[in-house]
Design goal:
Distance between the termini: 66 Å
Shape: elongated
Radius of gyration: 32 Å
Low-confidence stretches: none
Largest sheet: none
Structural class: mainly alpha
Strand content: under 5%
Number of helices: 1
Order of helices and strands: H
Amino acid sequence: MTETHTNTRPKVKGSLYKPPAQRPEETNLDLLDYIEDAKVRWQIHLYEWDEFSGDVVNVTKKAIDWSVVNFPKAVAKIKESYDKLTPEETKPVE
């Protein structure tokens, strides 16, 4: 049997990302770039929200349709099972 040796990494506390000590003086984007970026991000948000809403509506509709079909069947089955019980089995538990 061959033994495999793996290097163990030391545990690091905290984040490996070190933020800069000072804010950069100059940004690479001007105000119009920020505005355009915000517009694009808003459009992405609206698209994703619409997709999510559609998924929720579809699942909810399927659950309601399933319930409408199966709930009356379940009620009938429960009543049928209850009617088969003997009077002793239907007494309340003391």
